[in-house]
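Many introductory courses stop at the sequence. We go one step further.
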Amino acid sequence: MTEAAGSKFEQMRREKRQKIVQMGIDPYGQRMPEPEPSQAIKAGYEEGRKARCSGRIVLLRDIGKLIFLTVRDSNGSIQLGFSKQLLADKWEMIKLLDLGDIIWAEGQLGKTKTGEITIWAEKVEILSKALLPPPEKFHGLSDQDLRYRQRYVDLWANPEVMERFRQRSAMVASIRAFLQGRGFVEVETPMMQAIAGGAAARPFVTHHNALDIDLYMRIAPELFLKRLLVGGMEKVFEINRNFRNEGLSTRHNPEFTMMELYQACGNYEAMMDLTEEMVTHLVEKHCSGWELPFGEVTVNYARPWRRATYAELLRECAGCAIDDIAAVRQKARSLGLHEADKDDAVVINDVFEMTVEQTLVHPTFVIDYPAAICPLTKQSKKDPRYAERFELFIAGMELANAYTELNDPDVQEANFRQQLRGLSEEESMAKMDDDFITALKYGMPPAGGLGVGIDRLTMLLTGATSIRDVILFPLLKPEAKEPKNE
């Protein structure tokens, strides 16, 4: 629709709104008796029963003395039948309704000759007169950017989008219930922090005027949640936002939702068990079957899930041993990776990310990462070169990260002070948090810690291949401005 055409339609709707006002009717409604969800009305259908609904008009057929409307709410849609005989006092107003208007109606349930469940309205009220018409073409890749920018239209124009976000909400509720049922306590920790710690990421910086100090939007809640372990809270979790000043992609949004938890007397093996149990619980409760499509692959979530060491996967996919650093660096060069001025552990991880991760389609726990890239993790008692850490990969995408948490204050302080060669200060997680070290000196129990990306989990379980499809208002590039004609 051109801008001129849009202005024409808006003007026509403004004229209709004015006529409604002249009738003494508020075109933006008032409080009404609470409507029933459309799907509940259909599921509990009983001919002659009174029902009331509200929703946005998405279909309108005017056949003279009868008007049939389809209204859509957050649950689905239902048909309304308007008869001039029953609604004579509102008929003039009804004739001014348009697609996109939001209405409320009450009447008896019945079925049309074609078997369509219909509310034969006896009362009707307008709740909001839409001045802009529904978009003609709101589907397809050509309008994908518009759909993200105008999510307020996308939600009612495309029922599958509404359903995906309802699924997301239901799954988050299930995660909460799952954890609370196992004794975890939900908490909230600061989003503005004096020190950006707990992950390797570039933070957003903000300024507190009253104190005249710079603060960081948190990149992870980890160090505060561990302080709660010190305080005696033995099982804690948080579902909330993290902020990382990084690029945009189909798998990355600078503001994202993370579920992070800590369990005293646990370790990374306990976290593997918990993760596998939690995700399969969600699949069983919210999905249809154990095999779910995701893009061009089908993921099998049936237990047990594969557990493979970092070293064996590197050998399997990159063709080089983890302790043959010359071979690893040669592989890095062959992949076009810059490796000359980087620490060995960083080069190994670069090669791992390039060669291994995309091959992990079905749920796979990658265990025992190089200790040098895990400064918050306990080293393996079997081999101190490795850390008791896992990352869970599904469909080539990292979904979860977990540790056996380091609780020795002296070792933790030494790790914080050690900077990996090739990483800048702002990109490294090795930043000194003196207060956290002080907390550890009071004694933190051995623990397992886990972080799960809620956005990516929703992607996987709903089949959405872009993170923008599971975030209601994703960050987008500024719209290109059309040049003005001089």
